[in-house]
Amino acid sequence: MRKQDFSPTVLDFGPVRFILARHFGFCYGVENAIEISYRALEENTNKKVYLLSQMIHNQEVNSDLQARGIKFIMDTDGSQFIPWDSITKEDIVIIPAFGTTLEIERLLADKGVEVQKYNTTCPFVEKVWNRAEKLGKESNTIIIHGKPSHEETRATFSHSSINGPSVIVRDMDDAIQLGNYILGSKSRLEFFEAFQGKYSDGFNPDTDLKKIGVVNQTTMLAKETQAIADFFKQLMIKKYGEETIKGHFADTRDTLCYATNDNQDATYELLKNDADFAVVVGGYNSSNTSHIVELCESRFPTFFINSENEIRSKEEIHHFDYHKKEKKITYGYIPYKNSVTIVLTSGASCPDTVVDKVMMKLAGYFDNLKKLEKVIDMF
Ligand code: SF4
Q: Fewer Cβ in 10 A, N or C end of the chain?
């Protein structure tokens, strides 16, 4: 019963109230990946331990792993920190929760590195690969709704491409663009230009857009994912008619993971409340966190921060504008009034302790606070 309850928790300190999302913070995949990474370090004290790229999109966790000796081979955008030549079969390489491409798996296997031992690929990401495989085997072209440069989407694209023609759409604008090639209103040359780097080798827009299915990066915004699938279905109905739609569009459920769904559902519940502002805590390159920010922004002034350190004082907060991908400073973010209400939540790659620190730092700016023990007594 509790699992289906998305209503927020209210922590009332008197002059400040926090409305906390029912679901936030670490997901199964992240906990699993962190556990395996620390185990890899413990079991291999005399070896070099590498992570393919960031374990998760959380700076604190990544910094802690680095401090304990783990080295990152690549940046999140794929640029190389450590040349492949310096990795040997004696080394330990951990695959992050996002998974990796088949090309990198092969490269490591050719070197004799045992990648499966510390492979932390989340089972919900593997589920997307399995769905893509099934779609490909049923002769569908696989449309991947995801961020083209995100590690997970790159990995999914690689796995999907061996099972069928694949193409990535980032958002509805991309979907509408692709729709033009499905309807034949734009040429194949325009396709190759518009979707450069986002289609599989040998993709033929003339023949590969007649039978399609959609999979998603696990952390996309649920309503956008649904809108894109509906858009393609309607497009195929327009082109081929309702009677034959089954032969042209694979009507499957989205491949968002449970954590994305639960965190987004819990955020919709937050939006039903009145509040002075919202604080969303998470890594600035975290996809799932950015969608929670997007939802909160539709209702409250929202500050996206990665730790309590971004709250500089009662007057000044440093935060991330994910639309412009830049840091901002806002002064006077806490209104001067007797009772302030703050919505608080975090993304799937943020430790709960950070949310705790954010809450206590904000609460510390108010006088005559009720004691924490008293506030949580009612739970
Ligand atoms: S956000 Fe979802 S897919 Fe990603 S690691 Fe967590 S549970 Fe797995």
A: N
